[in-house]
Amino acid sequence: MTDSEQVHHATVFDDATRHVARIYAEALLAAADKRQQTQEVLEQLEELVRDVLSRDSAFAVFLASAVVSGEQKRDALRRAFEGKVNEVLYHFLLVLNDHDRLGILRETAVLMRDIYERRAGRIHVEATSAVALDDEQRERLRRELREKFNREPVLTVRVDPDLLGGLVVKVDDWVYDGSVRARLERIRNQLIEKGSYVHAH
Predict the structure, then answer these.
(1) Which of 95, 116, 137 is the last residue of a domain?
(2) How far is CA 103 from CA 21, 59, 97, 182, 196, in A?
(3) What is the pLDDT of residues 103-118, one digit of tens each?
(4) Alpha helices (H) in the chain, listed in sequence order
(5) Does the residue 187 lie in any domain?
(6) Bridge partners of 157?
(7) b vs e for 80-106, b when ≥16 Cβ sit within 10 Å of the residue's Cβ?
(8) How many domains does the chain have?
(9) Is residue 6 part of a domain?
(10) Per-residue pLDDT of the chain (201 residues; tens, 9 = 90+)
């Protein structure tokens, strides 16, 4: 992976949201650590985001809405989660509601996982390829990432047939894009920029 092949993309969450979500993620991690229930709380939070918010968009909109009162949301949280999730997580949801921050649950889950993995000396990596990677290719990718980031990569690999060859690897805000489509896109953008420059002069 050469420097010229590294492409930096904007973060998915804006900086202000990310900053607030990180504060809450660290607070939840500390509370879970105190009870030695970190993994359980983290997994349940991710499950909540994946199985509840992602699948029930109406409920997600309800929780994030500025129109719905805090009391209504508290009742909904109680009915949905009291006694069904870890107590630390349940009280965390109530605290988010009290501060009108239920809209950052997804970001909080992502950042809590990131902090947890970093603390354990690991780094989460998303790799997308046009065809499935074999064991040797996965190991080579792990080795390269280990050397670059000095941490143990935890790989999530998926296949995207629409990718025109190559590999896209995402680690936090760093993206390595070796796909043909990305190279063509870069060339196209350069041509457009040069064309604009010519017309402007």
Answers:
(1) 116
(2) 10, 11, 9, 33, 41
(3) 999 999 999 998 998 8
(4) 15-34, 38-47, 57-64, 70-81, 87-98, 105-119, 135-149, 180-200
(5) yes
(6) 127
(7) bbeeebbebbbebbbebbeeebbbbbb
(8) 2
(9) no
(10) 433 333 333 344 578 888 999 999 999 999 999 999 999 999 999 999 999 998 999 999 999 999 999 999 999 999 999 999 999 999 999 999 999 999 999 999 999 998 998 888 988 889 999 888 899 999 999 999 999 888 899 888 999 988 877 888 988 778 888 887 777 777 788 888 766 555 444
**Are the beta carbons of 153 and 146 closer than 8 angstroms?**
yes
Are 21 and 81 found together in one domain? Answer: yes
Q: Alpha-carbon distance 40 to 36, whole Å?
A: 9
How would you class 121 by CB atoms within 10 Å of its CB: exposed for 0-12, middle for 13-18, buried for 19 or more? Answer: exposed
Say how many CA atoms lie within 13 Å of 80 toward its Cβ.
19
Domain assignment present for residue 3? The answer is no
